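Z., the sequence and structure:
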Amino acid sequence: METIKIAVMGAAGRMGRSLTQALHENPETEVAGGTEPEGSPFVGQDMGELAGIGPIGVTITDDPLPLFTDIQAIVDFTTPEATLKCVELSAQARIVHVLGTTGLSPEDDEKILAAARHARIVKAGNMSLGVNLLTALTKQVAKALDEDFDIEVLEMHHKHKVDAPSGTALMLGEAAAEGRNISLDQHSVRSRDGHTGARKKGDIGFATLRGGNVVGEHSVIFAAEGERIVLNHIATDRGIFARGAVKAGLWVQDKTPGLYSMFDVLGIET
């Protein structure tokens, strides 16, 4: 069976190493390369050694361009700046781009959507099966309950995470807003400090915690007088995101150019 050649952007990071391991373990995929920024001490190192699976004969480069001539897909959990550069290359090469980068702006999303006219892009704030099920449930519960139930999204991640709220938290907030048929931008509360006054009815609040080596914990709380409904997801292994990304990369291989989500990959109706 011919394997699918997939390169890893940000190969030396936590997710990059997990992705290398997941690609190496999957009989349908092949680790075809990886990148790190120019000047990184990891450039030239074997990706397998960094991932803890032993040498695989594939080293990290600081120039992604040559990789795009000999691969079918990339997986990308990097930074908005790096992602926008790579998504242009994916569109030019007309390959698959599995995109898990968080912290993207609306303007960034527009550029990604434009690239999807030529590339097959799977974009998600979180690639795990459990989180995507949680997102679908959040939308359904928000739709079923009226504004007497206040909605709060709580998330915690490791101390090295640089963006907040997390992409997953925003995905959950967006699902709640869609369920309520409101705009998240107009009803989002990202911080509370000092004398803030009473909570405004219909708002969707976000709380962010950072510390230690927490992989990812998310809760959506629906709180009313006398009762609360709490939906939780706790990730203890970064491998769940990597395996989800690999699944997405394989699923979209025979699809037409366009922008897809993990709901499409998993066949979840929202």
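The two ends are 35 Å apart (CA to CA). The longest strand covers residues 216-224.

Let me know what you think.
H.
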